[in-house]
Design goal:
The structure holds two protein chains of two kinds. Chain A is α+β, with helices and mostly antiparallel strands. Chain A contains 17 helices and nine strands. In chain A, 48% of the residues lie in helices and 14% in strands. The chains are: A alpha+beta, B alpha/beta.
Chain lengths: 401, 164
Amino acid sequence: MQNVEMKDINQERFSELITVNMGPQHPSTHGVLRLIVDLDGETIVDVRPDIGFLHRGVEKLAENRTYHQFIPLTDRLDYLSSLSNNLGYCLAVEKFFNVKIPERAEYLRVIFAELARIASHLVWIATHALDLGAMTVFIYAFREREYVLDLFEIATGQRMTSSWIRVGGIRDDVPEEFFKRLGEFVSILDERVDSYERLLTKNRIWLKRTKGVGYLSKEEALSYGVSGPIMRGSGIDFDLRRDEPYGIYDRFDFEVPVYEDGDVYARYLVRLKEIREANKIVKQAMEGIPEGPIMTDDPRVAYPSHEEVYEKMEALIRRFYIVSKGFKPPKGHTYACVEAPKGELGYYIISDGDAKPYRLKIRAPSFVNLGAISEMSKGYMLADLVAVIGSIDIVLGEIDR
Amino acid sequence: MNFEELKDKLKRAFPEGVGYIEQHGCNFIDVDVSEFKAMLKYLRDECDFEYLSDVVAAHWPKRKEKFDVIYNLYSIKNKLRVFVRVKIESDAIETVTDLWKSAIFLEREQYDLVGVRFEGHPDLRRILMPEYFTGHPLRKDYPLKGRKWFNDVDEQNLGIHFSK
């Protein structure tokens, strides 16, 4: 893959471009990302991402599964925040049926989507700081993440691939212990984020590695379609939770952090602020959560409860029918998107009236964000490329699908 | 500007051959392939749809128009999302990479998986499947079983032996 060519770089001197291969097995590419980097000395001229090493054909698999059977596969997209993926998919399917979700389920969905955001951002700060040489933050952030994963385990039975959100509600109610543990967690989180900030925000090495690096202007950010913290770090005030509210997000009071600088440091500040805001939302949801059912009783999508199945013949038939054949949405197209930790995560579903989706397209935020990597890293040093990759916060499970 | 106002504005600019559908909570604009590019340009420049969120292609082997191509546009100013749907008979359509750079990756993906050729795309290569792969896996006529893994021929000279 070595190709050497002569190119006029800055009019004055001729220099040789060297093409370097980075990845797919490289600790700071966060998975199997391969980058082909054209270098002039140590300065980056062009970056060409080569992806697809983790391609599993999720969209093709979806076409041969019923709507319920696809939920576990959504976990494996962005495996650091599986509950956001579940939520986005279920919202899309619910749009076909116009289902009314019970209040308690809506609140629990918000709590878990925000906890997933916290967990994902904690992994991001840990690995990003580790890439740039700050080992301590890694250990601290993983300590808090472990707390969130324990909460997931209490409620869903799984630490990462939870498959907990269902079409029409959620799978199970949370046990009583959950809210006690959650209360402990939200009360310490702000303090813990302060401690990361003490380690990094004014750290001279951190500032040198991140400030002014990986600049993406507002116009380019829009044109490249980046979303999530990268977009907000480039000064675009856009958050799907606020601008296109899904679920019950319009009931919560939270800020959308926006920074104008457009560099790696701005994205760092956005994500740290987002952890605090997510914590704020979780606190509000904890206070407001009502008692009640957690699954809709809409017979088109909901499984009958076990009690009903044991007593009533009709419920048994309906359960059998939904499990074996699946439910059939009306013909048409629909799209639902959520503000996942990485950005806009959308599911475009085409239904032909069958129990399986005719075509399902996943709009993965990391995939689109990665498209801007060349623009972000041109003109910087090769070592800065590591900072840029870290700041995009890619998950290859989602990019390659 | 909501979808009704957008409809009025578009009806003045494109009086014929455009369908407006609101279905399952989404706004769709069905447009003919001859003027879809002009429509997208108009939406971007005059109606503040500066954000191309997604490009979706779907294969309909039994229909006369073999492919659907769907552009997912968002206006951050108006907080409005519309889907521009185009039906094409052949497998070729004009690219929109000159309007939005996000289309570079998104169109490459649809080319790779569904096999719609975006004419004028600066870098139309496979993106998720390996370069030496043949066929387009998300087409409906792509076999689910009994296919060969890759080409029989080791084109890149990687020393891989393909079983037959």
